[in-house]
Amino acid sequence: MMTDQSEKIEAFLESINKTYKSDVVGRSISSRYGVKRFSTGVHALDVSLGGGWPFGRIGIVAGNESTGKTLLALKAATAILNYDRDTRLHKDEVDPEKFSPCAALFVDVEGTFDSVWAKKHGWDEAVNVIARPDYAEQAIDIVDFALRENTFDLIIVDSIAALTPTKEITDSAEDWQVGLAARLVNKAMRKWSASLNKASQESDRGGPMLLCLNQVREKIGIMYGDPRVLPGGKGQLFASSLILWTKSPKVLDDPTSKTSALVQLGGVVKKNKTYIPNLEFMYTMALTDTEDYLVGEVDNDKSIVKVGKKFGIFNRKTGEFGCDEMRGRTEEIFRSHLRTNKDLTKLLWKRVLEEAIK
Fold this sequence. Notes:
Blueprint: H1 4-20, E1 37-38, H2 43-49, E2 53-54, E3 58-63, H3 69-79, E4 104-108, H4 115-120, E5 129-131, H5 136-149, E6 154-158, H6 166-170, H7 180-202, E7 209-215, E8 217-218, E9 228-229, H8 235-239, E10 242-246, E11 250-251, E12 262-272, E13 279-286, H9 300-310, E14 315-317, E15 320-322, E16 327-328, H10 331-340, H11 342-357
Parallel strand pairs: 3-7, 3-10, 4-5, 4-6, 6-7
Antiparallel strand pairs: 1-2, 8-9, 10-12, 11-12, 12-13, 14-15, 15-16
């Protein structure tokens, strides 16, 4: 039975959707608005994010120099190749004959993209694209166009701090442009948010992930509180659904060694509107080829075992460590099996992750 209130709501829905010629309002949220994710390529970070990077959201990765910001972006660009363009599902969940890999756009504002180093992390030039804009306005328009056209599934901006307005380039260095870069970045975030929302609404697969990198600055004279600040204004803090702070790395092996060099990286997911915030993550990566890992490879097996032990997936029976799928005499032997058995690693990665975030 329709009440006066129900009739008014129905009239409102019909009027608004007719005016804007789209289903901009409704009684229920379509399944296409659900948070779909893709792996970060780092198991520990997948756990802290709640399953991986979310499609249709803006993320910020910030930190000091050489703390793994670009590394995480490259890992994301590699991991997304394993997801289907049309369904945003992992290739193991779709028909191999219909699988079409997702693609990433790397907007190299800093002009420092290293293709050799990127390929060591799995960068695929046949699928992914690199843009190298000359100035900030050009970079902003490139990203905005890619968002509106929903051309890519992951867009990386490296970095916000390097976005230089044309006025700063053309004017004399003696001239001052107070707050110009911050105003421009704030405008960019508003444009990108609107374009991302529209792309998410108009496509069944949703919008892409926009991952922005930034460097940390420190305010002068701050005696209490956190002196760290991100260049580019506060608009990025409000527009983003995720904010990651990376921490200083720790070298575990002799960096001068030609046979072994491992570095421990990590950080904290300071803001997360898709999962629990303030969760920390840590992982180890090989800087050179080692006995156990190739250069650029992450010790995901260590994270899988650590998290699996926490949630009771792995245990010790009759002196052997492992799970139902496989057991080893010691934890180290079990981990060595994981490093050589990719199918088992993939299975346990998913199983442990599902248990950790449910």
